[in-house]
Amino acid sequence: MSRVLVTGGAGTIGSAVVRRLLADPGFEVRVSDQRPAPTWMREGCEVHTGDLRSLDEARRAIVGCTHVVHLAAIVGGIANFHKLPHTLTEVNNALYNAVLRAALDQAVERFAYVSSSMVFERAQEFPTPESHLPDCPVPLSAYGFSKLTGEVYCRAAHDEHGLPFTICRPFNAYGPGELPDDEPGIAHAVPDLIRKCLAGMDPLPIFGSGEQTRTLTHVDDIADGIVTAMASPAGLNEDFNISASDELTVAEIARVVWEACGRDPEAFELSHEASFEVDVQRRWPSVEKARTLLGWEARIGVAEGIAQTVAWLRERPELAVSTP
Length: 324
Description:
- By secondary structure, this protein is of the alpha/beta class.
- The protein has 11 helices and 13 strands.
- The strands form 4 sheets. A 7-stranded parallel beta sheet has the order 3-2-1-4-5-6-11, with helices on both faces. Strands 7-10 form a two-stranded parallel ribbon.
- The model has no long low-confidence stretch (mean pLDDT about 95).
């Protein structure tokens, strides 16, 4: 029996990872998160609530665990990257310091670090393979740089101390579990667009021209990819893009959301708001490495996944939105 620590396990991706692990009888799960854990998580897992920036707390969280999935970080939408550049760098690096040191002390069998597509913020090759990273310009955003730093920490711990690692880079996660935010750009694009559509906004506001591309990947697919990579011998000391394969423009995504919310397809119209200093213009990963080495690929299509997300958000009374 493997015991897996999921840091940041109460977040959107973390919760999906925990559900995926609990569905496999080969895993016991411990969650570390300072946010409240839902009832189902408290009933199915051990829960640690200490601050993982403290080495003592990180050691308490990891003791007895064979595997770590490290998700704990300051994340959010594009506005968060501009609003909190020093905070997210300070916090995320403190987490790397403590959690990686504790994992080395525990001699874990596998440390799965959940990085980000933002390490490829300035990618010049599309679809972008993992092998492009050494030639890819360093991210301009503090968030992208911070997530890349985590990858460097993993490789450094491996090179000096033999840490067995796997790096997973989710691309454009969406799905049930993430609420929109009142402040523009703090939440990710899909929940933000859904709330605007359900609130009857017309035209539908988006950031920038709408020609930017993204590769939306359902959170359940991401969770399955992370667990598959962590558990596979082929994932040892490797990095993987964990993503769907369809490149869509933001305008195309907005239309899918519009129609999933029951809005009239003929009435679809966009308004364009000024974007942020760092707004990646193209994001389209290669998924061949995960398919070849892990036998893994995303299964949930965008239309199906957005419909699920709309249904989930409609049930949230705190949104107080109208239903067209």
